[in-house]
Specification:
alpha+beta, Four Helix Bundle (Hemerythrin (Met), subunit A), SH3 type barrels, 2 domains, 5-stranded antiparallel sheet, 8 helices, 5 strands
């Protein structure tokens, strides 16, 4: 049985089935990401003044990832155009370049995630005073941990409760309550485990900003992985269709390209919202 409208357009929509299907799917994706962006706006607007972070993410790496995805948008178009011109060899070259860009994006994002998951806020109690430390984990054993002080930190509800406030006046007052700041960012901090009251990394539960950051970028990364898997299939075993039904194969490449453009467009919104604003 032959499935109709895999190549020719339907009379009622002017689109072949797969193209109509991908546009309906992308409409649902817009609603999904739209809801998450709305949640971000509400969380930020409702945050206590001075507590919403700025400069916490690595802007150069985010910029590099943006460039990588823009390049991949160009290569995915060139791949489809190559098939329209019956140049299968060029299609493989551009399709391969798109897959390499997807891999580069995911590798860079893994470095960013690792930076957050090794970044800790540590609360200690020494005598009757509490201290708040913040930095990247350098060493950990059963007796102590060693932190490298971070140039950027979050003002969490826990830190504020122990006297470390977001405002300069609050920070001076915090020193009187035991919250420690280190002017020398190259000085390592050694903390005895016996004094630790609480220790938590910069994961999703650490702050509302990090919760929405990991949710949005994690969901986006899953879309990158999904798109890369589909394109890798067409690059490998799926390419056999070019010999039997080149027009339908070209349409499949167009559909995967439309999804990839959506993934790129989402990142174009994510980058300024999370990294720059």
């Amino acid at each position: 049985m032959e499935i109709p409208y895999t190549v020719n357009a339907r009379k009622d929509t002017g689109l072949y089935n797969a193209k109509l299907g991908i546009w309906l799917f992308l409409a649902s994706e817009v609603m999904l990401f739209g809801a998450l962006f709305s949640a971000y706006i509400l969380l930020r607007v409702g945050a206590t003044p001075g507590t919403w972070p700025h400069g916490l993410l690595n802007v150069p790496l985010g910029t590099l990832n943006t460039i990588v995805l823009i390049v991949s948008s160009v290569t995915v178009v060139m791949a489809w155009a190559s098939l329209k011109m019956k140049q299968f060899g060029k299609w493989r070259m551009y399709q391969g370049a798109t897959l390499v860009c997807a891999l580069i994006f995911l590798v860079i994002k893994s470095f960013e995630y690792n930076d957050k998951l090794t970044h800790y806020e540590v609360v200690t109690k020494e005598g009757d005073k509490f201290h708040v430390y913040d930095g990247h984990l350098v060493q950990e054993d059963k007796d102590k941990i060693v932190l490298h002080p971070s140039a950027h930190r979050l003002y969490t509800a826990r830190a504020i409760a122990y006297g470390f406030g977001p405002e300069p006046a609050g920070a001076h007052a915090a020193a009187d309550h035991g919250a420690k700041e280190h002017s020398d960012k190259h000085e390592l901090i050694t903390i005895q485990r016996s004094t630790i009251e609480h220790m938590e990394n910069y994961g999703p539960k650490h702050h509302a900003y990090l919760a929405i950051y990991f949710t949005l970028t994690g969901l986006h990364a899953l879309h990158v992985i999904g798109g890369a898997i589909v394109m890798a299939f067409f690059f490998g075993p799926g390419a056999k269709m070019w010999k039997t039904n080149p027009e339908q194969f070209t349409n499949r490449i167009e559909i995967s390209g439309l999804f990839w453009h959506f993934v790129d467009l989402v990142w174009i919104f994510l980058f300024p919202v999370l990294y720059l604003l």
